[in-house]
């Protein structure tokens, strides 16, 4: 015990299993506090690999994640890489485009390309977890050559994704709650190339083609391409078996994209990889005694429709660090408090992500939905501290997720009362005022590589 601080001596070993975004950021947090950190990743070091296998995806980093990066000094480095986005751009079947702004001027979203580590953090690649013991903290890893390595850690942090090997040990224990849900929709990625070296569409928008039971979105990349992601029920993917059927499908539902993606590319790329599944994971508690804790997708994998998967994982890191400060780094107090604080929030964002998929593919086509959005903006303009849109609370503040949902339900009652008092007549002056104020809303997104 350090007599000057009242905290334990900083020679403890923290083993982070999983070297992805959340695992690497966690290494920064623990290393900053002086712990000896070892990160174990089953894949090879992509910085040295000649061929990198995986998919290129877009990630959105908003206020929650940005605050976590700021805490370890990485914010500016990550923020410097980005493409500004103003709003959603809705594409109708006829080709008409309609923008729907998000939040207020100055609110931004970022996505990181990499996470950094501190000097007292050791990275161990091609180390696959074989087994571990919660009581002793003893872990056994298998290297790429088949040999085994053992390490004993004071704290094990499971950041090894939705199919976590660390979490399997939790499943063997009593009073551990776990659920895994695959949604009936899969996703497929297509690439929209640049035209004459420039973006084929306006790059400062999240482009959405909502078609009720399915949808396609497009996000800009730094190389001037767009990643187009088609979300659709698996049975609909399976109905399309030939290149001509692909073109017929796109001609019916996404006609404006055919000349931008290219007919030949559509015929080829649609069959390049099968549609991928999406899973949502909930569990509790997140800890075992004072020896192990789950974070990121290992604790709460969510479907990608609120842009909060990475942000929730990054917020795990900063919430844990704040609790560490509160309890003087006493793991026996920190871990149960982390479970108590974090479980309701992570379950809430998992549910919101499911809800937002319905909104994105169906509701944005509804005039009633658009009118309600305008009412939200009006009420927020009139009472900015009282009425805050759900998306604003989730994306641009650190309001706890479950508290944002509770407030949203209360505000929904206020909104319905407002609609009753001020029927849609097109002459409510604040609507025009708020609409003009929302024209300069800015988001930021940027393209990153993530090994999946």
TrEMBL record:
One of its GO terms (molecular function) is kynurenine 3-monooxygenase activity. Pfam families: FAD_binding_3. InterPro entries: FAD-bd (IPR002938), FAD/NAD-bd_sf (IPR036188), Kynurenine_monooxygenase (IPR027545). GO terms for biological process: 'de novo' NAD+ biosynthetic process from L-tryptophan; anthranilate metabolic process; kynurenine metabolic process; L-tryptophan catabolic process; quinolinate biosynthetic process. Its main location: mitochondrion. Catalyzes the hydroxylation of L-kynurenine (L-Kyn) to form 3-hydroxy-L-kynurenine (L-3OHKyn). Required for synthesis of quinolinic acid. This is Kynurenine 3-monooxygenase.
């Amino acid at each position: 015990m350090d007599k000057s601080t009242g905290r334990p001596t900083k020679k403890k070993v923290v083993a982070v299993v999983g070297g992805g975004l959340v695992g690497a950021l966690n290494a920064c947090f623990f290393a900053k506090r002086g712990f000896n950190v070892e990160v174990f990743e089953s894949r090879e070091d992509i910085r040295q690999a000649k061929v990198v296998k995986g998919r290129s995806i877009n990630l959105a980093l908003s206020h929650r994640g940005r605050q976590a990066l700021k805490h370890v000094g990485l914010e500016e480095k990550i923020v410097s890489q980005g493409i500004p986005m103003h709003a959603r751009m809705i594409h109708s079947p006829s080709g008409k485009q309609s923008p729907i702004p998000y939040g207020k001027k100055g609110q931004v979203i970022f996505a990181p390309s990499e996470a950094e580590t501190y000097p007292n953090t050791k990275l161990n690649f091609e180390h696959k977890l074989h087994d571990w013991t919660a009581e002793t903290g003893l872990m056994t890893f298998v290297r790429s050559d088949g040999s085994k390595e053992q390490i004993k850690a004071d704290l094990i942090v499971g950041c090894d994704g939705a199919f976590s090997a660390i979490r399997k040990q939790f499943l063997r224990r009593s009073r551990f709650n776990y659920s895994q849900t695959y949604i009936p929709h899969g996703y497929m990625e297509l690439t929209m190339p640049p035209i004459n070296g420039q973006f084929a569409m306006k790059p400062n928008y999240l482009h959405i083609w909502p078609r009720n039971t399915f949808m396609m979105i497009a996000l800009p990349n730094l190389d001037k391409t767009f990643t187009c992601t088609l979300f659709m029920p698996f049975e609909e993917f399976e109905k399309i078996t030939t290149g001509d059927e692909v073109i017929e499908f796109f001609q019916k539902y996404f006609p404006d994209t055919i000349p931008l993606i290219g007919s030949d590319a559509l015929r080829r790329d649609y069959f390049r990889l099968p549609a991928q599944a999406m899973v949502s994971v909930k569990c509790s508690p997140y800890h075992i005694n004072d020896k192990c804790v789950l974070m990121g997708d290992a604790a709460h994998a969510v479907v990608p429709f609120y842009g909060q998967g990475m942000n929730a994982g990054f917020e795990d890191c900063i919430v844990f660090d704040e609790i560490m400060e509160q309890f003087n780094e006493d793991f026996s107090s920190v871990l149960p408090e982390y479970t108590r604080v974090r479980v309701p929030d992570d379950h809430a964002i998992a549910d919101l992500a499911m809800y937002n998929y319905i909104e994105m593919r169906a509701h944005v086509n509804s005039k009633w939905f658009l009118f309600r959005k305008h009412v939200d903006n009006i009420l927020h303009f009139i009472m900015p501290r009282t009425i805050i849109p759900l998306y604003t609370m989730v994306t641009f503040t650190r309001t706890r997720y479950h508290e944002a949902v509770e407030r949203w339900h209360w505000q929904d009652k206020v909104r319905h009362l407002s609609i009753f008092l001020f029927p849609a007549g097109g002459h409510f002056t604040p609507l025009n005022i708020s609409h003009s104020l929302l024209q300069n809303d800015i988001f930021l997104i940027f393209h990153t590589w993530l090994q999946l």
